[in-house]
Amino acid sequence: MSRSILVPHDGSSHAQAALEYALETVPDARIVLFHAIDPFEPTPEAEGDRHPPLTDEWLDEQRAVATELLAEARESVEGGTATIEIETAVGSPAQTIVAAVGDTETDQIVMGSRGRGGPAEVRMGSTAEHVVRRASVPVTVVR
Fold first, then answer.
1. Residues 2-13: pLDDT tens digits?
2. Contact at 8 Å (CB) between 59 and 113?
3. What is the mean pLDDT of the chain?
4. Per-residue b/e over 14-37, b at no fewer than 16 CB within 10 Å?
5. CA 47, chain centre distance (Å)
6. Which residues have a Cβ under 8 Å from the Cβ of 8 and sit 6 or more positions away?
7. So what's the pLDDT on residue 115?
8. 78: pLDDT confidence band, cut at 50, 70 and 90?
9. In this model, does residue 128 exceed pLDDT 90?
10. Which pTM does this prediction carry?
11. 76-83 long-range CB contacts below 8 Å, 24 or more apart?
12. What pLDDT does 42 receive?
């Protein structure tokens, strides 16, 4: 039976390490590189309360950024026998990752222990912890 692995990717070194781990561990897997577009993430570009304007233009821009980020991650590891697909969704990263398991028909999650926003500590980040607690499939956290 072929394995299908969801790898959330936010551009961080931890996410890239998770992608590399998934490919090394299951080289013939179907990998779904996934990025959650967080509409509630504060951004330096936003005015006032530092939250982005939730417009169609902003969403289109974020989808383009996510597609480019995932394409670069895929290109950096291509050459094996794995099939690598790209998916994005809008929502809180932790909840969106958990929901993506069903949407992408994956049977495992391999993710980084921390994302772009957190300091490099021993503990897991809040997104990884949420996913570990709530996912309906096995989760491997890579440091």
1. 699 999 999 999
2. no
3. 88
4. bbbbbbbbbbeebeebbbbbbbbb
5. 27
6. 15, 18, 34, 35, 36, 93, 97, 100, 109, 111, 112, 127, 131
7. 65
8. confident
9. yes
10. 0.87
11. 76/16, 77/19, 77/20, 77/23, 80/23, 80/27, 81/27, 81/28, 82/23, 82/26, 82/27, 82/28, 82/29, 82/30, 82/31, 83/29, 83/30, 83/31
12. 67
Check whether 103 has a pLDDT greater than 70: yes
Is residue 87 within 8 Å of residue 62, measured between CB atoms? no
Residues 6+ apart with CB under 8 A from 80: 23, 27
Q: Using CA atoms, how far apart are residues 106 and 116, in angstroms rounded to an integer? A: 24
DSSP 53: P
- In 3D space, the residue among 56, 10, 31 whose CA is nearest the CA of residue 109 turns out to be 31
Q: Enumerate residues 6+ apart whose C-beta is below 8 A from 27.
A: 80, 81, 82
Quote the DSSP letter at residue 56: H
Residue ranges of alpha helices (H) inside the chain are: 13-25, 56-77, 93-104, 126-134
Q: What share of the chain is helix, strand, coil (3-state, %, to 5)?
A: 40, 20, 40
Angle at the Cα of 57 (from 56 to 59), degrees rounded to 5?
Answer: 65
